[in-house]
Amino acid sequence: MQDSTTVKPHIMERQAYLQKEVAEISAIYRRCFPGHALQLVVEEGDDPARTDPVVLDAGQAVQAQHLSSQYLGRIDLPGPHPDAPVIRAVLRIPRTPTKGEIANAEAPWRAPRVLRPLFRVAPGAYEYIRYTAERFRAGRIRRHNWKKLPFGKGSPILVPSVQPDAAARPAILIGFHWLEVGGAEKMAFDTVNWALAAGLRVFVVASVPSIQRLADRLPDHPDVTFIRLDRYLPPRLWPLYLERLAIEENIRLIHIHHCSHLYASLAHLRVSVPWIRVLDSTHIVEYVDGGYPRMSGVWSNYIDLHHVISGELVDFYRDRFHVPHRVKLGRMLTRHDGEVALPALNMTVGAKVLRVAFIGRYYYQKRPIVMARTLGALARWARRNGVELRATLVGEGPFRREVEQLVRSYGLGDAVEFLSASADVPGLLRKSDILLLPSNNEGLALVCYEAIEQGCIPISTDVGSQREIVPSGLLVPHDPGAAVRRSVAIVNRLWRDGTFLAEQGAAMQACYRRLAADPTAEEVLMPIYRAAATGAPALDDIL
Amino acid sequence: MSVLTNTAAVIVTFNRSAKLARVLDALAAQTLKPDTIYVIDNASTDDTEAVVAAKAMPSVRYVKLPKNVGGAGGFHEGMKIAYEQGANYLWISDDDAYPEPDALEKLLDGIQDFETRHKWRPSFACSRVEWIDGTLCEMNTPMPVWDWPRFLRADSLYALVVSCSFVSVLIPRWAVKEHGLPIADYFIWFDDAEYTRRIARSYPGIFVPESRVTHDTPENKGVNYSLVTEKSLWKFAYGARNETSFHRRERGIVGVLGFANRVRTEMKRGNVPWSIRRRIFGAILKGWSFRPPIVQV
To answer: Do A390 and A318 belong to one domain?
Structure first.
């Protein structure tokens, strides 16, 4: 439009958003290229998350393929002197997400077109095909490197002269995978709070561009800064930016939570800012190719300490990377004073009502279809035995719609309640007999701790480190059909056999107590954070 | 939310130079003028080209098509060109619809205000279309969604709609990018309803009653098969074929049978002669195997 002179509220809001993002872009590039003049071409993105920033090589001009109709303008940042070389970049400012995009990261799931009719009539058969295909794929996947990258200790003769700005209070850089819902992310948020409590300033980055729905859960504190490298800086430039950040902000410690770009920056950081200490936290060994623990192990020579949350991971680092001396176990539990008081089981033998809970995101990893089929099978079991089945399912995600339809098709529309992810989970578990967790893969599911604390019996697939918290009598096979059958068989035996019920209750409480006796993540990490806040010598002593 | 508001008007015309001249005058008088006005001439044989040239409006781009491809083909071409030329918003209208001076401004304000207030992106914003006597123009009545008053309040007069006609509708660029162009092969009728329903899959459009246009049609009648006559049969036949094709694509045989039953009932109520009824049913049969492609941008 040609002649809009009136400033309307919605226009002002858009302009304010753009100005905020332009300030963020300018700050990132100014820090990354202090010796250059910068010409930053800015466009409006039509995606709420993906931005694909492009930084042109020195001397390269902007080409038509870099631009689109969404061109907004150019930010010019002068160099330190008139002859400073020029760096050009083409950057997109993402649009603000809609309500629907905030509520659901992905569109509702539908079975692939070819298999849709099969899914309609036999969801179990579909699930089995997918399970088999995934196992087949896992067997054929091209393996990543599992060798530790070599790195020497260096010589005191050649110590770089660069030093961090001692005038700035010590700081920590915490790398997230993303700021979305997840167990690893919960841990990462906890570490932000612990670092603040230890007296560190906190800088947060995330490696995966996304809406970062939980960014507002970062403490609203002047010492916490979320830098949007995920939006505006290509991964290959992260090391250069982080070097400058470390020097200017007196970064003493880096803590990596499944943040691949931070791992990839370690080589440059170790050489350019050698005073920095690095630790990482890992949660889950991906059955396909190791996932983040593999990545962490490969970079082990660049990392001072691997914090892990399960015994399985301790063994993994020992057996695959031979670094037991650099691994510390810290459970995702809160330390209680004295003996942990665990309540009696909610389930009783021969009860007329069976209360089942499912708590998790409706993603394939949690296998919500298997959970729904288990509910269907339990409903048939309940009818045969004159038991009333009630289920409460908590969570959001692309599979939720299909689960709702399946549940209705089993005639359980009135017996099953769907709650949002913000529901009172401990309150629900306190009123539930059984927690279903038929996941495809898990690290060590936090919800199992919570279930046992509330007297609810978890029935879980035997994946990841689940056997550390769930007794073998309550574990079910990975195969989807077998998982459904075994889950019903376990419930049946718990319901009929008082001795079995008592044994499993005692066994799961023993598991919990064994885990509760281990150090917590906070106990492992806080001394390191405090040492980092105190100064380099203290940190050298502890790591 | 976008701060970019490069807007293109797309007007399809055929042998109505006098009315087109009034449309161009109305666009020149807009409080927010479109950056570009594409006049898509469906191979008119009157003085359309001379009338457009005489206006000497620098924002007008006159595109003469080699043959008459119908309203659907004209809108398809016009929107394709406007999109390729980088329009952020496309205002689509007929050559006999005269927008009030603030019609475009209200539509753009409506989309942007709605996005800011409610954090949803309407796939289009349509005007209130009135006939020459100020009453509602029957054929341009938008179809509401089931929860149409969700955001309708005294201070926010937006009703949610799932389809509207190509008479003063503002379509954001993202909707064209995601859903493609109108189906040119429809030639005439139902191209607008199909297209707006298609883009409304992302999110419904909004009806902006403060934006008003006058549709200068010879008579004020809706699209109802009880009204089909020998003279209007050719248009209704295109409509029946196109709508059948749409229902087949969206809902399969059930949708087609439902549509055929509605047409049958309407023709029965209107006591339409059997010779015409047969030809309409023939068009429905044709529509069953009519599967025009959707062209993406």
So the answer is: no
Give chain A's largest Cα–Cα span.
86
**Domain ranges, residue A44:** 9-95
Q: What is the pLDDT of residues A62-76, one digit of tens each?
A: 999 999 999 999 999
- Is the ipTM of this structure higher than 0.90? no
CA distance B117 to B260: 41
A534 shares its domain with A511: no
Compute the nearest-CA separation of A40 from chain B (Å): 18
Q: Which among A71, A95, A119 is the end of a domain?
A: A95
- Kindly state whether residues A502 and A366 are assigned to the same domain: yes
Are residue A191 and residue A289 in the same domain, yes or no?
yes
For residue A383, report the phi and psi dihedrals to the nearest 5 degrees.
-65, -40
How many domains does the structure of chain A reveal?
A: 3
Closest by alpha carbon to A490, among A460, A468, A464? Answer: A460
DSSP for A488-499 reads HHHHHHHHH-HH
Residue A15 has its nearest CB partner, among B3, B86, B109, at B3
In the numeric block, which tokens belong to residue B228?
């089909």
Partner residue facing A2 (CB), from B35, B118, B120: B35
Predicted confidence (pLDDT) per residue in B24-82, tens digit: 999 999 999 999 999 999 999 999 999 999 999 999 999 999 999 999 999 999 999 99
Residue B203 sits at the chain A interface (C-beta within 8 Å) = yes
Chain A CB contacts of B5 under 8 Å are 1, 4
Residue A153 lies in a domain: no
CB contact under 8 A, B112 and A11: yes
Least confident of A55-59, A211-215, A260-264, B208-212: A55-59
For position A191, which CATH number holds? 3.40.50.2000
- Among candidates A1, A44, A99 on the partner chain, residue whose Cβ is nearest the Cβ of B35: A1
User: Is B119's Cβ below 8 Å from some Cβ in A?
Assistant: yes
**Cα–Cα distance list, B78 to A92, B12, B69, B85, B91 (Å):** 28, 8, 12, 11, 11
Distance, in angstroms, between B297 CA and closest chain A CA?
A: 14
- For residue A50, give the 3-state DSSP assignment: coil
Closest chain A residue by Cα to residue B114: A10
A277 in the same domain as A367: no
> Is A14 in contact with B112 (Cβ distance < 8 A)?
yes
- Could you tell me if A201 and A288 lie in one domain? yes
Rg (CA), chain A: 26
CA distance between the termini of chain A: 61
Domain boundary among A56, A76, A95: A95
Is A1 in contact with B173 (Cβ distance < 8 A)? Answer: no
Tell me whether residue A107 is in a domain. no
Angle at which helices A480-496 and A498-517 cross, to 10°: 110
Closest-approach residue (CA) in chain B for A4: B32
Residues of chain B neighbouring A15 (CB-CB closer than 8 A)? 3
Walk me through the domains of chain B, giving residue ranges and CATH numbers. Answer: 7-215 (3.90.550.60), 225-288 (no CATH)
Q: How confident is the model at residue A2 (pLDDT cuts 50, 70, 90)?
A: very low
- Give yes or no for a contact between A173 and A242, defined as CB atoms under 8 angstroms apart: yes
Nearest to B5 by CA among A15, A131, A530: A15
**CA-based nearest residue to A262, from A296, A289, A232:** A296
**Measured CA angle at B259 (ends B253, B263), to 5 deg:** 140
In-domain check, residue A172:
yes
Q: Say whether A8 and B118 touch across the interface (CB within 8 A).
A: no
The reply to whether A526 falls in a domain is: yes
> Are A417 and A321 within one domain?
no
The minimal CB distance from B3 to the residues A2, A18, A69 is found for A18
Residue B147 φ then ψ, to 5° = -105, 40
**Which tens digit of pLDDT belongs to each residue from A492-502?**
999 999 999 99
- Cβ contacts of residue A202 below 8 Å, gap of 6+? A171, A172, A174, A192, A195, A196, A223, A224, A225
